[in-house]
Design the sequence.
């Protein structure tokens, strides 16, 4: 094991990069002398910008500030909640490229399921949150009220100076891929894999003849008796018998280990591309991440079925492929941004001339009022 660089030492002394599935697919153990391309990842480079600073405008109306949405995210960024620092350390160990993101999620209530990211609002909510956060940073906040011994002119000068300082400090504030990576992980709920739990439908099998491994991670959606569903994310990839034994050994370990599935994506012209899946372990007690294998999927798809199957709910059965190495159908940036100002806008009332029936009814009401007045 001494010939392996420490960066790639992982479970049982090896870092697994699993190839796409075919009968002769095998695991590739990365070594520095065989992977010179990794050196470019170590060079300090700036991450892509999604929204330029000049396009980010502050909120004009304090009532439109999405404080409830952004305050928790600020706590996450500044280490008051979540496990951002541990996740960033894990990302650094993986040595991802500047245009790549590591999407694992964090465990907290009211999250969007990462397992169903193509069907829920994870991308849209992350896009809104990352832009709202930048806009809030550019929005002047109410400073200290006018002092007892402060003239009105002094007070106005102080407010103007504070706003000028804020404007100068945020002049180059843009929305970059790094902050979008933060929002996606903040909003996503991780994909846990527990093949030993009787309460889940998670599973992991290996086909030795075809050298293919099939892992299923499940999630239940509780609704009505006939409307409740079970969704399974299916990951299929090629693996040698030796590597399959290592992976299954970790997934079937009865000790207190928590196994998860995450994704490595890249940003291309404002759209994310799912490049690889990653199997990892995470201990919430000490916030440590451990990579089990990095995988090039041959298949990735979501199956859904009714929890209580019946003739009436056959339509709930579905199978949906997840695009791999293709642009995912969401454009990040201002194009699909949903400003809070529009969401809180008062509904426009329909203006139309009254109908003949309405005019007749109004006349009758008026006559009735005159009669009552005379009485």
Sequence:
């Amino acid at each position: 094991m001494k010939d392996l660089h420490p960066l790639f030492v992982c479970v049982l002394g090896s870092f697994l990069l699993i190839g796409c599935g075919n009968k002769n697919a095998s695991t590739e153990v990365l070594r520095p002398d065989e992977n010179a391309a990794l050196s470019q990842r170590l060079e300090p480079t700036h991450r892509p910008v999604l929204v330029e600073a000049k396009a980010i405008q502050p909120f004009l109306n304090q009532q439109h500030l999405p404080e409830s949405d952004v305050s928790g995210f600020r706590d996450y960024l500044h280490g008051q909640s979540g496990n951002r620092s541990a996740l960033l350390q894990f990302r650094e160990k993986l040595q991802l490229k500047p245009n790549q993101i590591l999407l694992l999620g964090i465990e907290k209530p009211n999250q969007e399921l990462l397992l169903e990211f193509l069907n829920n609002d994870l991308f849209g909510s992350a896009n809104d949150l990352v832009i709202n956060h930048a806009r809030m940073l550019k929005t002047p906040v109410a400073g200290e009220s006018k002092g007892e011994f402060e003239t009105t002119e002094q007070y106005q000068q102080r407010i103007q100076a504070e706003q000028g300082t804020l404007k100068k400090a945020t002049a180059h504030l843009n929305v970059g891929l790094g902050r979008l990576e933060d929002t996606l992980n903040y909003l996503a709920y991780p994909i846990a894999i527990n093949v030993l739990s009787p309460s889940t439908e998670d599973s992991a099998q290996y086909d030795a003849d075809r050298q293919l491994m099939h892992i299923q991670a499940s999630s239940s959606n509780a609704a009505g008796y006939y409307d409740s569903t079970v969704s399974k994310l299916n990951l299929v990839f090629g693996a040698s018998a030796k590597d399959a034994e290592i992976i299954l050994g970790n997934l079937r370990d009865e000790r207190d280990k928590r196994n998860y599935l995450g994704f490595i994506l890249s940003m291309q012209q404002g759209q994310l591309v799912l490049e690889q899946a990653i199997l990892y372990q995470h201990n919430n007690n000490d916030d440590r991440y451990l990579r089990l294998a990095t995988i090039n999927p041959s298949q990735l798809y979501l199956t859904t079925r009714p929890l209580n199957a019946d003739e009436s709910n056959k339509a709930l059965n579905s199978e949906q492929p997840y695009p791999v190495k293709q642009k995912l159908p969401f454009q990040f940036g201002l194009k699909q941004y949903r400003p809070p100002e529009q969401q809180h806008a008062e509904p426009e009332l329909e203006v139309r001339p009254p109908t003949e029936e309405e005019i007749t009814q109004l006349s009758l009401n008026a006559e009735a009022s005159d009669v009552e007045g005379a009485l």
Remarks:
- The first helix runs from residue 67 to 77.
- The chain has eight helices and 16 strands.
